[in-house]
Amino acid sequence: MPPSNNPPLARDLSELFHRAFRSFRQSWSQQLAPFELTPHQFRAMHSLVRGTADHGTPEGLRLKEVAERLHIAARSATEVIDHLEAKGLVNRCTDPVDRRATLVTLTPEGRTLTDEVQVARRDHAQLFFGRLDAQERAELSRILGKLGGTPER
Hints:
- There is one protein chain.
- This protein is mainly alpha-helical.
- It has a domain of 99 residues: Winged helix-like DNA-binding domain superfamily/Winged helix DNA-binding domain (Arc Repressor Mutant, subunit A).
- It contains 6 helices and 3 strands, in the order H-H-E-H-H-E-E-H-H.
- The radius of gyration is 19 Å and the shape is elongated.
């Protein structure tokens, strides 16, 4: 059958995008296994690093903020933080500004592990996207930025 000049249907693009995402997510989960972390747990830890950088303070984030950054329910964020706390990777403490609120911070072990996983994540992304040449990666970046609402540079 000769190649078609017709562009793929939207549902075909959606399926291709979903399949590529699942492949990336599955391989990323496998990369996290030696660290004994789930993708949600790593994303929570990464959010704590970014959150303290965004605020310019080492105080941490409230559970509600963690949930918002992960786009999950507060109850789910509590479960993720519970698991990280049991592993000694995060601490909870009283918010000095509002004693009713709890702040979550990374422990030194959590910060070290986050740094190690970020290096592994960069290596994983290079391997995964290394199947594309430089021009294809630039085009994919442009397209995904456009679909994600990121303005072009």
